């Protein structure tokens, strides 16, 4: 079916409103007057479009997250260590302004830092983001004032990233724009948004997902290359894409996207790689040499079982686990009764990377939130997961308060290990729900109306050409359209879709 025809069919259908299909969303909507009616937000050119509403809500929640950091902004970042933990408002941004030489005008990757770190331990595009913010920081006066302004400038730039994420997630599923409210209202998003610079990579990844959903294969690859130059995890999106293109026979699209991603990543990195090789490779050597750290199950094993885990050992086992998980995903993708949706597999591979990593920092939840909204847009499960993440957010700061305060006030080690287990369990729970949707596609919320893969781009409605255990024609579905056998589609026939 031509893409133009498929696009017109999707656009003719009414938007899916969660308040009329999700009991939790419906209950929550009572705070603002109840579920939306048939005529709500339908006026052409109306001001309250879903994109604008979601973007404004996301910016509002981001601003509330900034307010939550005010005790630190005003004094706690600068008066000892413990206060920023007891107020749960820690951020790397003001500390690294000093610790990575930006306050002294040092250039990342080129100028050697004093102390053991030697060079900035961030990927090139994130380093550029940090450098631009330091150029914009024209504050004079005390070092404290410069740190405050630097945090504010970064917060403003990260707020722009937040708006980009909100818009991209809203537009990725054409008929489900309101699912992006999961991102906009996520409490863990607001709490962790300004801890570090992760939102840059998250925004580029969200834009890449939008481009793929529109069939813009080269643009998708370019954005993935840029995102991987800002953070390592976006490169993982090519792994589920390989599996889905294998099942659907879309090898040309996969090759094009991969080449565009690799070329873009190389174009961004090559100047620094050539001109400052020692500084460029610091991120990669630091990632390899980093000790087992906060938030990971490796830390529980190391401290509770008394097992010495060297970085190399953790790296090797984490790599082995990722290989095994990828093989499991390959089996799931190729055996599933219907081809999994792209967003589902992307969420699973990124979650697997975080769960097996040596460190699971509080802000890593930002990587997953937009993917979760696309993979499993169910408010109950999303809020269960968010509750676990909020508990961990509080747990790590209370544990650090306990260990740095000297008065045993806060959360002792056993309590912190319980908090780690809780947020790992929350992530695993959401992964289990996504896997269940793949194995039982009739329970997939996105496919309830007869859709195939709204974020799948060229995969949406594509035929299967390779299915393990049976031929594509053995599953009982028509070979020329999306394999839908439940529900009543809003309009059209199976061939129309």
TrEMBL record:
Bilayer-crossing regions: 49-67, 119-136, 148-169, 181-212, 218-244, 317-336, 342-361, 382-403, 415-435
KW 4Fe-4S (keyword) present: no
Organism per entry: Streptomyces jumonjinensis
Family stated for the protein in its record: Belongs to the glycosyltransferase 87 family.
UniProt xrefs under InterPro entries: GT87, UCP010361
Subcellular location: Cell membrane
Membrane topology according to the record: Multi-pass membrane protein
Main location: membrane
Signal peptide start and end residues: none
Gene Ontology CC terms: plasma membrane
Basic and acidic residues bias (residue ranges): 7-23
Pfam families for this protein: GT87
Region (Disordered): 1-31, 472-497
Keyword Flavoprotein: no
Entry protein name: DUF2029 domain-containing protein
Gene Ontology molecular function, alphabetical: hexosyltransferase activity
Domain of life: Bacteria
Assigned keywords, A-Z: Cell membrane, Membrane, Transferase, Transmembrane, Transmembrane helix
């Amino acid at each position: 079916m031509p893409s133009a025809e498929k696009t017109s069919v999707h656009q003719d259908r009414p938007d899916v409103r969660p308040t009329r299909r999700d009991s939790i969303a419906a209950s929550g909507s009572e705070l603002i007057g109840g579920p939306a009616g048939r005529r709500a937000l339908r006026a052409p050119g109306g001001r309250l479009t879903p994109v604008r509403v979601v973007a404004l809500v996301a910016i509002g929640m981001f601003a509330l997250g900034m307010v939550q950091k005010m005790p630190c902004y005003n004094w706690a970042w600068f008066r000892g260590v413990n206060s920023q933990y007891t107020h749960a408002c820690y951020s790397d941004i003001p500390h690294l302004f000093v610790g990575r030489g930006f306050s002294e005008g040092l250039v990342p990757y080129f100028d050697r830092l004093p102390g053991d770190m030697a060079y900035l331990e961030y990927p090139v595009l994130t380093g550029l983001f940090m450098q631009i913010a330091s150029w914009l920081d024209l504050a004079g006066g005390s070092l404290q004032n410069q740190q405050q302004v630097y945090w504010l400038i970064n917060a403003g730039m990260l707020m722009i990233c937040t708006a980009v994420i909100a818009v991209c997630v809203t537009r990725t599923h054409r008929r489900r724009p309101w699912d992006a409210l999961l991102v906009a209202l996520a409490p863990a998003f607001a709490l962790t948004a300004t801890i570090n610079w992760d939102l840059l990579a998250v925004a580029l990844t969200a834009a890449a997902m939008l481009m793929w959903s529109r069939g813009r294969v080269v643009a998708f690859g370019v954005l993935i290359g840029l995102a991987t130059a800002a953070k390592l995890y976006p490169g993982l999106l090519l792994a589920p894409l390989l599996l889905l293109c294998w099942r659907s026979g879309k090898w040309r699209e996969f090759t094009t996207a991969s080449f565009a991603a690799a070329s873009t990543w190389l174009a961004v990195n090559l100047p620094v790689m050539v001109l400052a090789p020692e500084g460029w490779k610091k991120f990669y050597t630091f990632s390899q040499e980093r000790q087992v750290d906060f938030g990971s199950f490796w830390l529980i094993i190391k401290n509770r079982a008394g097992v010495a885990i060297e970085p190399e050992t953790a790296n090797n086992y984490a790599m082995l686990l990722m290989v095994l998980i990828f093989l499991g995903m390959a089996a799931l993708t190729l055996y599933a009764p219907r081809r999994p949706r792209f967003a589902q597999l992307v969420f699973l591979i990124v979650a697997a990377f975080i769960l097996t990593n040596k460190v699971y920092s509080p802000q890593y939840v930002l990587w997953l939130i937009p993917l979760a909204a696309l993979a499993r847009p169910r408010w109950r499960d999303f809020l269960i997961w968010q509750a676990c993440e909020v508990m961990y957010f509080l747990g790590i700061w209370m544990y650090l308060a306990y260990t740095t305060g000297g008065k045993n006030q806060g959360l002792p080690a056993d309590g912190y290990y319980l908090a780690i287990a809780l947020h790992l369990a929350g992530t695993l729970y959401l992964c289990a729900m996504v896997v269940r949707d793949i194995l039982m596609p009739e329970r997939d919320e996105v496919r309830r109306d007869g859709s195939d893969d709204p974020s799948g781009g060229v995969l949406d409605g594509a035929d299967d050409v390779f299915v393990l255990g049976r031929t594509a024609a053995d599953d009982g579905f028509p070979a020329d359209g999306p394999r839908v056998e439940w529900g009543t589609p809003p309009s059209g026939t199976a061939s129309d879709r």
